[in-house]
Amino acid sequence: MFIAGVDEAGRGPLVGAVVAAAVILDPNNPIEGLNDSKKLTEKKREKLFIEIQEKALAWSIAEATHAEIDELNILQATFLAMKRAVDGLGIQPEKVIVDGNQIPKGISIACEAIVGGDASHAEISAASILAKVTRDREMVALDAVYPQYGFAKHKGYPTKAHFAAIEEHGVIDQHRRSYAPVRRILEK
To answer: Binding of a divalent metal cation: at which residues (predicted)?
Structure first.
């Protein structure tokens, strides 16, 4: 049975897309060291990112943009990114397991939500790693365009440094305007 693990990265940040990944692992080609991406070092995530792409039977990375987040809300945008990731798989899974406590709308395959699944199910761990590495790389690329914001360091999360940069330099197009801290700054 093909089981696709699904997870996301980037629900909490104030800027950029929310990224989701779906992964179907090969039971005959196991990957050592899979875990919740947040419990791994950046170096380990980068190594596993490549290994997952080489060894998985199928994988897909998708996102919902900052504009879609503002239009839909973060939960619905996350579900949209997850659906896009599942739809992008080269193999049709018979079951989808998702990290969290809610099943994404729009996925027509049998789906189960698993709280803490990114630490307990290898398929979800692999998806967690693909999503986080992809989103972190997007923040590093955004940092190259807007170095004054420190995106490479805080990855867009609402840190003191990020708020200070927004206060000093303003809101950029990629900021999520529907998020209260960004909206408050825009209303000043």
So the answer is: 7-8, 99
Residue 25 and residue 106 in contact, taking contact as beta carbons nearer than 8 Å? no
R_g of the chain computed on alpha carbons: 17
Beta bridge partners, 97, equal: 5, 112
What residues contact residue 75 under an 8 Å CB cut-off, 6+ apart?
A: 102
Structure tokens at 12: 């909490």
Q: 8 labelled as ligand-binding?
A: yes
Domain 3-141 has CATH 3.40.50.1980: no
Q: Which of 151, 188, 184, 147 is nearest to 16 (CA)?
A: 151
- Cα 180 to Cα 91: distance, rounded to the nearest angstrom: 40
Q: Is 99 annotated as a binding residue?
A: yes
pLDDT of residue 188: 79
Measured N-to-C along each axis, helices 180-187 and 160-169 cross at an angle, to the nearest 10 degrees, of 30
- Contact between 172 and 149 under an 8 Å Cβ cutoff? The reply is yes
Predicted TM-score (pTM) of this structure:
0.96
User: Coil, strand, or helix at residue 96?
Assistant: strand
Torsion of CA 91, 40, 74, 102, to 10 degrees: 60
Look-up of token digits 């990265």? 9
- Residue recorded with tokens 């992964």: 23
